[in-house]
Fold:
Amino acid sequence: MIRAFTHSWNRIGFLSLWVALLFAGFLPQARATLILNDSFSDSSRTNQSLPNSANWVTGGPSNNATVSNGALTFKDASAGQATAMTYFSAVDLQVGESLTLSFNYSFTQVANADNSLMFGLYNSGGSYVTKDGLGFNNSIFNSYTGYATSGVFGVDPSGPGRDHIEARDKLGNNLLSIGTYSEGPETIQSGAATPGQTYTAWMQISRTAAGITVASTIGNSTLSQKFSTNLFTKFDTVGIFSNGDTGSLTLDNIKLDYAGVPEPPPYLAMGILAATVFGRVAGRKVQGVFPFLETQLRSLIA
Structure:
């Protein structure tokens, strides 16, 4: 019986040590990468030095966009004048990975038009915009794919404004035309927006085994949409656009984060190996003690 107990202790002791090491901090951690973190602290919108500075191309004239006080401001946000786009090294999301775009914004007057604000992540397919003033109705954008969120800066007088999440899955020159997107069935009423107040916009694209999930926030309205078709996984473009008459528009603290599938740290394998060796050594030492105890016990019984 004692020998059977020592054999069981050897096995249980090893397993316990192995599990203890895992739960003592050896579990793998998710990989996180900051792709973009532009606070415009360098007073430039054209300096491409990721992650801290990006080259932002505007669809309107160059003199409509200025950087001051650590922010990018468009003097005129009407008719697509306030449009900013930049590129980064392409990321192809695998299952369990995600991209998160966030930025601060403020404006000087309420825009009641639908799709006054649109922002998204796209795959350019290598068709880059290289200079200002080309607008966003251009053959360059014909094959751009990706996901976007659109909403209004305030309450639509024709009815409650709605925020949408959409997939750009149709060929078309106009990147800002909602006709080149398929909108998800879920919408949410836009929250009231106040001129001069700073808000945060946010969008996360996550790849799951079931497809793509896009979650987003405009002001105080949050929405989530799942896509099982129109699945796009590769992205290299950030776009932030205003189609509405918002007076001037200011953008700041534009960030893009990538979160990858967890990878085991190098010390995990070392920990498991150490647990294996220690468990076996400990088991042998305990087994060496029990024959002595068995001898003493038999002498007492006799």
